[in-house]
Every structure is written in structure tokens, then in C-alpha cells.
Amino acid sequence: MSIPALLLGSILVVISILMVIKARKKTTALKEYEFENRSPDGVVEFASIDLSRTHAADKGLYTVIGIVGFFVGIFGVALLVAGFNLVIFGF
Questions:
Q1: Using one digit for the tens of pLDDT, what is the confidence trace for 14-46?
Q2: In the chain, how many domains are there?
């Protein structure tokens, strides 16, 4: 059981890092767009309502991807710890 736990834990940690990096990059790009297209009143301006909806959906999507990536990473680390404990204690 220890080798599959170590392997799966390692894979999940890598996947979580990639998820968090991707979410961070896209969120930064969305924030840059908001900064560049902000009116003097503080309202973000869009060319059409469809772009506004897409922007809001992307913002929510990448927030969720970042949160899920964080928890996948925690689960991966837990598997790594369990795998190392199984290896060390000989189970």
C-alpha cells in the first residue's frame, strides 16, 4: 500500500501545483483587464454584455479551480505522509 500511496500523493501534489498556478495566472490576467478598463467612477467597462458575463464566469471558475487545487494538494500531502509512515514502520 505504501508505494501506490506515495505515487498517487506525488501525482496529486503536482496536479494541485499546476491547478493553483493556472488559476493564479488567469486571475491575474482578469484583474489586469479590470484595472485597464476601469472608468473614473470605478466601474469596469465591457464592450458587450456577453463579455461581461464571460468575465464574471471566468473569475468564478478560476477561483474555484484555485480552491480545489489547494485541497487536492492537501489530500496529496496526506497521502505522501501516510505512504512514508507505511514505509518507515514497515506496513
A1: 999 999 999 999 999 999 999 999 999 999 999
A2: 1
What CA–CA distance (Å, rounded) separates 23 from 55? Answer: 14
Buried-state track 40-66, b at ≥16 Cβ within 10 A, e below 16: eeeeeeeeeeeeeeebeeeeeebeebb
Read off the pTM: 0.83
Closest to 77 (Cα-Cα) out of 3, 4, 2, 14: 14
Q: What is the pLDDT of residue 32?
A: 96
Domain extent, residue 77, equals 2-89
